[in-house]
Amino acid sequence: MEKKSIEMGVDKTRYLNQAEAEGFKEIVPDDFPGKVIPGGNGGNIVVTTLDNVINWGRSNSLWSLYFGTSCCAIEMMQTGAAKHDYSRFGFEVARPSARQADLIIIAGTIVNKMGPVLRRLYDQMAEPKYVIAMGACAISGGPFFYNTYSVIKGADHVIPVDVYIPGCPPRPEALLEGMIMLQQKIKTENMSNKVNPIDGFDEGEI
Amino acid sequence: MEQIVNNSFKTQEYFVNMGPQHPAAHGVLRLLLTIDGEIIKNVDPDLGYIHRSIEKMCERDSYQQVVHLTDRMDYLSSHINNEAVCLTVENALELEVSDRVKVIRTIISELTRLASHQLWWGVMGMDVGALTTYFYAFRDRELINDIFEETCGARLTMNYNIPGGLMFDIHPNFVKRTKEFIAHFKTKLPEYDRLLTGNIIFQKRTKGVGVLTKEDAISFGVSGPVARGSGFANDVRKYHPYSAYDRVDFNEALFTEGDSFARYRVRIMEMWESMSIIEQLIDNIPDGDYNTPTKAVIKLPKGEFYQRVETARGELGVYINSTGTKNPYRVKFRSPGFSNLSVLNHIAKGAKIADLVATMASFDFVIPDIDR
Amino acid sequence: MTNEKIQNIVNGWGEGFEFSEEGSEFLNVVVPKEQLHSVCSQLRSHPDLNFDYLFCVTGMDWGEELGVIYHLESITNRHNIVVKVKTEDRENPTLDSVCDIWRTAEFHEMEIFDFFGIKFNNHPNLKRLFLTPDWDGYPLRKDYVDEANMIVK
């Protein structure tokens, strides 16, 4: 009988190392705004025991900021309600104030008028902070890509993003998988060597 | 002595920004309040934080693509929005759809209205301070989402209507699951009444707050449950019936006090009436085609076409001006939230900020519907 | 009331009106822009017509002319009429405001100013509503071009 792991959630090697093991190299398009930082930010395969404990505590109690602009916000509210509950994973508290949050889930379209507001909220959050882009509109403009004069084609033109969740709107289970993927990403970080993605972030034209 | 006290304690009006990101959970609405202490002197809404230029996009899209864009406008009654554009195109082409399509469209519209009012009830309780209602409402809303997912394929933005009928036929389980849901929800709605309607704190927060008279409602172009709470009877399902609404028998919910509590009771009564409409139709869905075929490229004849439907928020109007080509020349969506929002300055003068929050909750805004 | 009776009553109020019923389900009347305010206030106050519910205000660019379309309904008599008004001036178009007759027109006229650039006389608060105050141009006109933001397909 093989020894089974008692860890909850998804097996982390599936995302971080399995891709390289299959010989798949990630390709970043030429016009991608911003910097691509490979996973396992700052840390390598060996993470010290102290880091393990600290990362376990940090990833299992992320507090998110209320930020929903359009339809994806309803699916985010459904994920917080009783049937699929994200407080099982530690995201219990959703704070309206940016100073008390360390995760921002961008659920909905970002428009030219809203861009500076989003940037100001991100700047008000305290380090370390993470960003999840939920839904097609936050990833790349979504259904509003052609023929519009007022939509920013992707939230990563404004702030750096850690996890992308596709869907229009994504199911609550998809949002939960994205949140767990972020938790796995945090568990392999090393706080003292962490590279801050906002340094030298190319803002482009907002 | 009195003069010194009066001069040194002079108050001054100042501006407070109820910003685009705030926990009253309505979306991105920015209100500039001019207040004197706690009393509001002026409310100035600043819109456009979710303006996605849908009307400009429609001028380069085909008619089928226009239908699918309307899902994202008022996402809580997405099926009814789709139905509005489909009915406009079908009336312009003088295309007859089968009875089966009309009855199924009506049933799914009423289920959508129920889902939207459930979410409104949960959020209204949350705005006034009761967090329990949020969880109860979403628990019941999940059951409707499951019915939609089995038949239409998606939970929130269901692209199920196309000009000419429906995209595919209903699932064999649809009738059984809908009947089970109605039987289950009929035992839950009295529970909602026990929780919130009879609650003395809720009644004190909403009775006499945000009063709108009938003449003001007509002059400001208000529609939907907000108008019916002030005695202005304008249900589009009764006076300009479409789809299968002329064969069902239902009452129009009408109250005359005009305050937030009356608007609350209008929506609760509408939930009962929706269930009664579904019960009258669910057992006798006629047989027939689920789709009347149209050409792949739809071209409307030259002219102007207008269609009104009743969404969960009020009267939605679709105006299409066509010059005979495959794209419309101008599409205008008359959104219910835009006219309802213009009343806010008029009725919030002299109220406190907490009263403004309760009034906005009873209006039930969805901001992408206002900004389009 | 039937459309012919309405047409007869309205015809007596001035000249230059063009009535038509083809291509639409309502009775349409094109009014010259100088008579807009007097026609509208008579439509509201006439005891047989009593058009008190303005339910749709649409801005329109017909290619060479700009204009506004008003959809009206009467709650007591349940009949409808559509009033259109045009102006050929594209540099500085101005029309009369009707927000003292129907108060819903305040917000709708702000929206039309934002997207088409039509100014309304006697409007209490005419400013940009949806776009930022420093936006250049009027997007919903047919000759609007914006290479920076729009990806045209």
Give the C-alpha Rg of chain B.
Answer: 22 Å
Low-confidence stretches of chain A: 1-10
* Secondary structure tally, helices of chain B: 16
Give the helices and strands of chain A as they follow along the chain.
HHHEHEEHEHEH
Q: How many angstroms does the end-to-end distance of chain A come to?
A: 57 Å
The CATH topology of the domain at 62-190 in chain A is Rossmann fold
Name of the top-level CATH class of the domain at 62-190 in chain A: Alpha Beta
Mean pLDDT of chain A comes to 78
- Low-confidence sequence ranges of chain B: none
Query: Hey, roughly how much beta strand do the residues of chain B contain?
Result: 5-15%
Strand order of the largest sheet of chain B: 1-2-3
The strand order across the widest sheet of chain A is 2-1-3-4-5
3D structure, described in words:
The complex is a heterotrimer of chains A (206), B (372) and C (153). Chain A is of the alpha/beta class and 206 residues long. Chain A has a domain at 62-190: Rossmann fold (3-Layer(aba) Sandwich), CATH 3.40.50. Chain A has 7 helices and 5 strands. Chain A has helices at residues 13-16, 18-21, 49-59, 72-80, 115-124, 136-140, 172-187; strands spanning 64-65, 94-95, 103-107, 130-134, 163-165. A 5-stranded parallel beta sheet of chain A has the order 2-1-3-4-5. In chain A, strand 3 (103-107), helix 5 (115-124) and strand 4 form a beta-alpha-beta unit. Chain A starts with 12 loop residues before the first helix and ends in a 19-residue tail after the last helix. Chain B is of the alpha+beta class. Chain B has a single domain, classed as Cytochrome-c3 Hydrogenase, chain B (Orthogonal Bundle), CATH 1.10.645.10. Chain B is 48% helix and 12% strand. Chain B has 16 helices and 8 strands. Chain B has helices at 2-8, 54-58, 63-69, 78-93, 99-128, 132-151, 174-197, 200-206, 214-219, 225-228, 236-239, 260-282, 336-341, 344-347, 353-363, 367-371, and strands at 14-18, 30-36, 39-46, 161-162, 165-166, 303-310, 315-322, 330-334. Chain B is globular. Chain B starts with a helix and ends with a helix. Chain C is built from 3 helices and 7 strands, in the order αββαββββαβ. Helix content of chain C is 20%, strand content 24%. Chain C has a domain at 3-94: Beta Polymerase, domain 2 (2-Layer Sandwich). In chain C, the strands form 2 sheets. In chain C, strands 1-2-5-4-3 form a 5-stranded mixed beta sheet. In chain C, strands 6-7 form a two-stranded parallel ribbon. With 153 residues, chain C is of the alpha/beta class. In chain C, strand 4 (66-73) and strand 5 form a beta hairpin. The longest helix of chain C is centred in the C-terminal third of the chain and has 12 residues, at 105-116. The model of chain C has no long low-confidence stretch (mean pLDDT 85). Chains in contact: A-B, A-C, B-C. The interface between A and B is medium-sized, with 33 and 37 residues.
